[in-house]
Amino acid sequence: MYRLDATDRRIMAALDDDPRMTILLLAQRTGLARGTIQSRLDRYRTEGFLRMESTRIPPAALGRGLAATVSAELDQHQLEEAMAGVRRIPEVLECFAPAGNTDLLCRVVARDPVDLYRVSEEIRLCPGILRTSTSVFLREVIPYRIRPLLDAPD
């Protein structure tokens, strides 16, 4: 497993400020050579260190201002079918397999409560899903962030 060094942290902090920054601008902002920037970015992509830039688009800008979690209990014999079904639902932004009583925890978005019901039902009706429970987010307290981790000591 590759461990980030101080150079990686400088590059990623600059990218966190502006993920669409060009290699030339990244080199200028970080004081690093363009070749260094390019090789590090290639490594980040290969290792899966960078999220897609579309994660910075707020769902509300796409008409999906209501956010929630949908937890699901699975028939363990149909895990792959359930995951395939959930993947096909565009309103499912992320899905995790947590420890505890919940088998899947999906972060979803919807247009309004009626639309959230539809999204929850789509998840519930996926093959292998036995039951779901939905919790609505009333407001975002801390938006997705990575910068504090980049700035924290190892």
Automatic annotation (TrEMBL):
Gene3D superfamilies associated with the record: 3.30.70.920, Winged helix-like DNA-binding domain superfamily/Winged helix DNA-binding domain
One GO term describing the cellular component: cytosol
Keywords: DNA-binding, Transcription, Transcription regulation
Organism: Kineosphaera limosa NBRC 100340
Domain HTH asnC-type, chain residue ranges per copy: 4-65
SMART domains: HTH_ASNC (SM00344)
A GO molecular-function descriptor: sequence-specific DNA binding
Domain of life: Bacteria
GO biological process, one term: response to amino acid
Pfam name, any one: AsnC_trans_reg
Name of this chain's protein: Putative AsnC family transcriptional regulator
